[in-house]
Amino acid sequence: MSIGTVYEKAYKGDFNQVKVKIDDDKSLVTTPDSNNRLLIHWAALGGNENLVDYLIDEGSPVDSVDDTNCTPLILASSAGRLEVVRLLLGKGVNVNHKTNRGQTSLHYACSKGHKEVTKYLIDSGANVNESDVLSATPLHRASSQGRTEIVELLLKSPDINVDLCDSTGCTALHLACEEDREAVASLLVKAGASVNIKNKEEKTPLDVCSNKLKKILINLCE
User: Fold this and answer.
1) Per the domain annotation, does 107 fall within a domain?
2) Distance from C-alpha of 63 to C-alpha of 72, rounded to nearest angstrom
């Protein structure tokens, strides 16, 4: 088995084959691949918590970063791997670590619609208002994609700021309205999101939504 396939085995969760290779060469635990990912990155992405746990016991750094500054937690969150997320957070990893694009595990979980992972991250201290390089928050990501259940979770957080603007001056409500996400837009307005904030094009959320949605939101504001 060549060194290249060890990472594939870790991703697929072939525990015994990875263990045999590491027994032969302990340095594999901390040897990065061409993307600067360690075995723990691939095991986390594949959702193999037993292998992740074993690699940590063998000395793998838990907050190691790849060439995009992704940690195993970010990869596991993006893939919806709840058990791995739980394991890594139990090992004290940084829940708010950011990629080169400024995105956290919560950004990815919200964007992909992983409800249980999102809840666990929030319960573990993830910053619900964290912004990426485009000043987009997890709420922006979830709202634009119509992730109703994720938006509901975020809005339950006492720390949530529903009116934060991204780099274009848009709030989460702007994005929900632009994409005609009726359920999400309604949730945001009920949670106190402003219909009067203007983006950099001088448009409010009501200016960018359909006539049907506009009527619904105006009724909610009355």
Assistant:
1) yes
2) 7
